[in-house]
Design a protein that fits this description.
The structure is a single chain. It contains five helices and five strands, in the order ααβββαααββ. It is of the alpha+beta class. The strands form two sheets. Strands 3-4-5 form a three-stranded antiparallel β-sheet. Strands 1-2 form a two-stranded antiparallel sheet. A hairpin with a 4-residue loop joins β4 and β5. α1 runs antiparallel to α4.
Length: 153
């Protein structure tokens, strides 16, 4: 997993340097850091919203710096589990691409950083999806925050 994050960081850095985006950045480093922190929170909120939509049960939020995670005692079908896991990368990715197209050039650096963060922060989600795809359609998944329980006949 660390190799995946490193690869995303290398790719993102390469794009930023090769396009000279840092030179056209109109935002200060503080805004970039704040934006990254807000991204991480929004990423987990999307998991939370989809878990809540598919379940009426109480949700749990865990903070263990530098990670935030959400969990639920409910059981989710494979399709819903994959939807919950993929929601942030899909919705935030599309939103960031739209912002890249409509915001002035001075924001390209920030959006590029956030797009890279979108892929890197979703590494665990991708692993969950690949793991879920190995189970039959009727398998049930329970996200406990630090582990995922799978029940299959």
């Amino acid at each position: 997993m660390a190799a995946f994050f490193a690869l995303c960081a290398i790719i993102g850095t390469t794009i930023i340097i090769s396009e000279d985006l840092a030179d056209t950045n109109t935002l200060g480093i503080l805004w970039i850091i704040v934006s990254c922190l807000l991204y991480v929170i929004l990423h987990e909120v999307l998991h939370l919203l989809f878990m809540r939509m598919f379940s009426g049960r109480k949700l749990k939020i865990s903070f263990a710096f530098p990670a935030i995670s959400v969990s639920c005692d409910d059981f989710f079908s494979r399709k819903r589990f994959i939807t919950i896991a993929s929601a942030p990368v899909m919705y935030l990715g599309l939103s960031l691409i739209l912002l890249l197209l409509i915001l002035p050039e001075g924001y390209t650096f920030l959006i590029s950083v956030l797009l890279t963060l979108n892929i890197a922060a979703s590494g665990g989600d991708f692993l969950q999806i690949f793991h879920a795809l190995r189970y039959p359609q009727d398998a049930l998944f329970q996200d406990r925050g630090d582990e995922t329980a799978v029940y299959s006949a």
